[in-house]
C-alpha cells in the first residue's frame, strides 16, 4: 500500500506526477486562500506526510495526527516549526536548503544597490514627473564598490552574497556568525567581528540569520544607533529579526541612510504601515527565492523530502535540530 500524503497548497504538475508515483494524496488547490487550520487538522489526521508552507506546525496540529512521519516546508527558513513538538510526536521537519542560495543572493544584491544608489526612491521620483533641473548632488548616493559589507549570519546564502561582493564589487567583507569560518576568511579576506563592531564598521549591513528565540529583535534601537549615518540596512532574513518601530524611527531621523527590506514583521505589509511613507526605503514583497526555476526546484525538493519521510526513510533535508 502506498503512503498517504496531504499537500496544503497548489504545486506544479510535474511535482504532482512525482508524488502520484509514490503516494496516494490530496491537495488544497486554492491559491487565493490558505487552508483553514481546522480543515488542515482533519486532512492530516490520517496522513503519513504533509507539505505545508508558511503555516505554524505546532503542538495543536501535531496532536491531531495519527500517522504523520514528516512535514515538509517549501522554504529554507523553518521558524514556523515548533521543534520541541516535532520531537515529541516523532515527526521529521524538513526544509529546502541550497537550491535557492544564488537566487536569494541575487535579490540581496539588488537591495544593496538600490539602498546605496537610491534606485527605488529615484524611480518613484522620475515616475512622479518630478525630475527637473536640480543639481547632481540632489541624486547622490553611496558607492557600493570598495565599500565594506557586513553580513550577520554567514550561512549558505551569506556566502553567495559575499562571493558577489568580493569578486564583483571588490568590497571588504566583515561578518558576524555563531562559528568562525576559516576557509571563507581565506577565500574572501573576510574578518569575523562581534555584532557591535560589525555594525559600526560596515557600510552595508545584511541580516541573513534564521529567526529563532535568540535572533528575534537582534537589531533594535541600540544596534541601529551603532550604524554609520551613511549606512544601509538590508533585511533578507525574517521581519522579526529587526525591531521595525526602531527602524522606522532611525529612518525618519536619518540616523542611517536607508533600509532595503524583503521581509516584515507582518506580511503582507499593512496598508497604513509607516514604512510606506518613507522615501529612504526599498521594499519588496518577500521575493528572495521568487523565480519560477528556483520555486520549482524548491517544490520538488520539498516533495522528495515528504515522500521519503512518509515512506519511513530519513528525508535528505531533515532540519539540523533533528539530525
Ligand atoms: N527573503 C527570503 O525570501 C529568504 C529566502 C531564503 C532564506 N531566507 C531566510 O534566511 C535565513 C538564512 O538562510 P541560510 O540558508 O543562509 O541559512 P544557514 O543556516 O545556512 O545560515 C544561517 C547562519 O546564521 C548563523 N546564526 C544563527 N543564529 C545566529 C546568531 N544568533 N548569531 C549569529 N549567527 C547566527 C548560523 O550559524 C548560520 O551560519 C533563513 O533561515 C530564512 O529565514 C529568506
Ligand atoms: O525561507 C525561505 O526559503 C524564504 O523566505 C521563502 O519563504
Automatic annotation (TrEMBL):
InterPro entries: D-isomer_2-hydroxyacid_DH (IPR050223), D-isomer_2_OHA_DH_cat_dom (IPR006139), D-isomer_DH_CS (IPR029753), D-isomer_DH_CS1 (IPR029752), D-isomer_DH_NAD-bd (IPR006140), NAD(P)-bd_dom_sf (IPR036291). Residues 6-319 form the D-isomer specific 2-hydroxyacid dehydrogenase catalytic domain. Keywords: Oxidoreductase. It catalyses: (R)-glycerate + NADP(+) = 3-hydroxypyruvate + NADPH + H(+); glycolate + NADP(+) = glyoxylate + NADPH + H(+); (R)-glycerate + NAD(+) = 3-hydroxypyruvate + NADH + H(+). Coiled coil: none annotated. GO terms for molecular function: glyoxylate reductase (NADPH) activity; hydroxypyruvate reductase [NAD(P)H] activity; NAD binding. The keyword Oxidoreductase applies. Gene3D superfamilies: NAD(P)-binding Rossmann-like Domain. The keyword Oxidoreductase applies. GO terms for cellular component: cytosol. It comes from the Bacteria. Its EC number is 1.1.1.79, 1.1.1.81. Residues 109-288 form the D-isomer specific 2-hydroxyacid dehydrogenase NAD-binding domain. Belongs to the D-isomer specific 2-hydroxyacid dehydrogenase family. GhrB subfamily. PANTHER family: 2-HYDROXYACID DEHYDROGENASE-RELATED, GLYOXYLATE_HYDROXYPYRUVATE REDUCTASE B. This is Glyoxylate/hydroxypyruvate reductase B. It comes from Natribacillus halophilus.
